[in-house]
């Protein structure tokens, strides 16, 4: 009967633990702050709370004597948090780079159903029709601010390991520069129309061989001269820009891949979308450039998030077992001490929470260590990955406060699981049996 009661009790604890972890995952920062405030008030204002503080103080004071075992928890949790934060920082950096590309004041048009510029075709006859649509702003010369652009994937050699990689070559005209005010020329000059000249992004310069200003590279059996370099702080940093007509003639293009336009005021996008839908000759999709580039990051970000969560979970299971072993050993080593406190009138609840607080403190130290290592090693670290246009996009890892917060929540969740069962064992330990065993 006692065995059945204990089994049911453990099952209830397990179910409560699962429910608690589920609530912990979705708990916002202010929710955590409320929980901490309530716990602090209970510890300071109630008798059992003060008993808990006394037991916790004794446990923490003994940490130097078992520092080696405690480091198992700290290092294990630090590894989980470090790997998780680093992996998610890669997706966060890629997403941030693409989100900085474009804005709500410009729109991009692609062939209906196209997900990217690579598989889009816009005929030359359609460009004048687009330019005359409502919702498009006009420049100082009174002409619509519209840029019909060509996109070409080219083969480049990487500086990192000398392997081949895809780079994006974009053909633009003067309006293409005006539509992207973030782009700043930092070296050399712009290309001249009709000339085989290139202006390259600083990200592409850092990644590929032979893109220094003044050098020549061979593309499509033709010599192209690098005449300038630009910075934009977004995905355009990874591109090579050329005159759109020169690119089209070199690669025998008779159409464009996209058309980008400046929107006329807050209602410009609605007007443009309605005007395009009303013209049966324009079977095109239109969206703001912010929306377009934001969608390009969704797939990779989701994959990285899922992969990071899976890897983090596997590592977290190992860290939980490490914490369980360590805390069970700590409880066994302090059996006489705990039994003496129980004999003096300390109840089971203060003992449970004291052991839990000790484990959570070690988890907090491990989480902080892992987050700090991830931030020091990976924040701002530059890498590249294959984007939606089948070309490399340069971006930087971004260890944001939100990621660090999520990592700390993982750490404390591991501490919760790893400390709960040893804490219950300490509270259930019979006083006479513990004193006899000691």
UniProtKB/TrEMBL annotation:
InterPro entries cross-referenced by the UniProt entry: ABC3_permease_C, MacB_PCD, Macrolide_Exporter_MacB
Domain MacB-like periplasmic core span(s) in chain numbering: 70-277
Protein localization: Cell membrane
This protein's name: ABC transporter permease
Membrane-crossing segments per the record: 7-23, 29-46, 67-90, 303-330, 351-378, 403-424
Organism for this UniProt entry: Lysobacter koreensis
Residue span, ABC3 transporter permease C-terminal domain: 310-430
Pfam families: FtsX, MacB_PCD
